[in-house]
Amino acid sequence: MSAYETLAACYDELTYDIPYEKDLTFFERLCARAHLQPRTVLDLACGTGSLSVLLAQRGYRVIGADLSEDMLAEAEQKAQALSDNRPFFICQSMQRLRLAEPVDAVICALDSLNYLQKPADCRKTFQRVFQALTPGGIFVFDINTPYKLRGLDGQVFLDETDDTYCVWRTEFDEKKHLCYYGMDIFRLQETGWQRSFEEHIEYAYEPEELEAWLREAGFTDIRQYGDLVLRRPKPTEQRIFFSARKETP
Question: Are 171 and 179 in contact (CB under 8 A)?
Answer without folding.
Answer: yes
